[in-house]
Structure formats: structure tokens, C-alpha cells
Amino acid sequence: MLKRFKGNPIIEPGPDKKWFTKKAYNAAVISREGKYYLLFRGVADDWISRIMLAESSDGINFVIEPDPVIIPENEWEKMGCEDPRVIYLNGRYWVTYTAFDGKTARAAIASSTDMRHWEKHNLLFPNLAHPQRENLPGDWSKAAAIIPQLIDEHYLLLFGDNHIWSATSTNLINWTSSSVPIIGARPNYFDSAYVEMGPPPIRTDRGWLAFYNGINDFTEKRIYCIGAALLDLNNPLKVIWRCSKPIISPQELYEKVGFVDMVPGGYSSLKNMSVDDIDRLYDKNDLAEAVFCCGSVLEDANIRLYYGAADTRICTATVDLETIFNS
Fold it and tell me: Number of folded domains in the chain?
């Protein structure tokens, strides 16, 4: 459904990339005053995630800052700052990201006036106790995305990588979570195992367009695809429409082969794998496939997505709104 940029990938890791020698993926995006800003997850030789900043005038060719702009500083994020989502509101940029302490992933929030210097505020849900997938802790919380306007005098946030839950706030810093999910997995669809929130929803004349990530099963050969849902403008907790097929699924080799986080033995095994090891898994059809979206921007009547390909590199693709709505 999406038209991939012919020059994909637009950002790749490499041995000469100090802060993302292993992986560069899962980019947030914001477009302001003629510039595109990407915040993306970089993984270096120490296998700790840090958030990098890149800037572009055309949304394709990015200049990357030499050092990360968000790094692990607290005990609750000592093993990584991951998978950002970003909005601009009330004169500040607000980024939600996953803080990983080595055991539990939790959503956190920071703000900035220039995208380079960030003030960290807190974990969004320090006392969360939701039912989780795959025997994860009850306070596990990932993939938080803020709707960039007030709804009934409250800010609304969608989050989760088991179901997609909602939360409300009056100040963008302190959040109260609902225990009732608004989007869940669907049997016999591309998202039959679980769903995970994508970028901040985009306002359209038909409703809030929300992209999300879904997988088909919990095997090591799971496939991550990107889906879409339309939420009511006045009550975004009401789902008006949801796609029956993925907006984009892994098709190109750069979307299928890479250091995908889900390998036999998990992330600890991934750290010890070589490119040859990854190729062997792919040849044996034992490698998970992944396209994963944290960033989208509306350009006239078109959506530009930025997505992680095989958890290793950053790509972009475009689609017009009518194509999405007619799907």
C-alpha cells in the first residue's frame, strides 16, 4: 500500500558510526519550519541504546548529530533509552521513550525547546499493574504516543505492546492509565498475537489516524507489520475503523535480514551474533521479520512514514490518505 523510497535505507549503522555501530532504527519524526527532525535509536558495540538526532530539509537526506541527545542517566534506564515518539506542544518538544533497566521496559517522558537539550521528567507509569504478555512484569509499559492537543481539557496518550491502552494528564508529565484497552489483537489477522502503539496519532478531517505495529504469532519466526486505525476526533477512545490488511509488511531484503531483536535465545544471544549468523538464520527461515514504525508526518494529503527495517536500519515510505481510508 505504501510507496517505498527507492533509496532505502536512508540511515544505516556501520563500524564508523560511533554510537550506532550495530543498529539504527525506530525513528520518531517531527516537521517544523521547513525542517525534518528524526530522533532514532542507536545501538553501539556495548549494546546499550541511546537516542540520536538527525536533521533534514527534504525528509530524505539527514545530517546526524555526532553525539546522542538522550542517554541513560538513571537506574531505571541504565541499559537503554529506546524507541522515541515526539510531538510539539505548548512551545516545547515532548518525547516519550522506553527506559530499560535490563529487566523491565517502562515508558518515560522528557521535554526540550531545541531538540538537543532534554529535561527528563519521570516514568509515566511507575505503579502500573496491567496484564502483560509472555510473563512480563505487570509494570512493563512501552510505546507511549501523545495526541498533540487537548481533549476535554485533558491530554490523551496511547501506549502498550500487548494491548493498546489509554492514559490522561493535565500537565503532560503525570499520567493516569485506564485499565481498559481500546485496541487488541484479532484472531486470523496480521495482528493476531499482539499490537503495539506506533507514532503519535495524526489529525485528519475524518478522525485521528493512528498507526500501530502488529505481529502474527509468538514464535521466533514472528512477523512485524504496520497497521492503521481511525479514532473519533472528539473521543479518540472510540475506534471508527481499523485496517484488515497491513499498511506495510516486510518484503524487501533490507526489511527481512538484520539484527532483529527476536532471535533464538533472545536479546542476550543477539549480542554475540555476527552478520554470518544472521544470514544463516535467514537461510534456514528461522529469522523474525520486522517493519516497525515510531514516526509519521502529514505532508499535504500524504503520509510519510519512517520505520525500522529488520531492527537494523531506517527507511521511509509514503501513502496518500485516500488510499488508507479506502483500504
Answer: 1
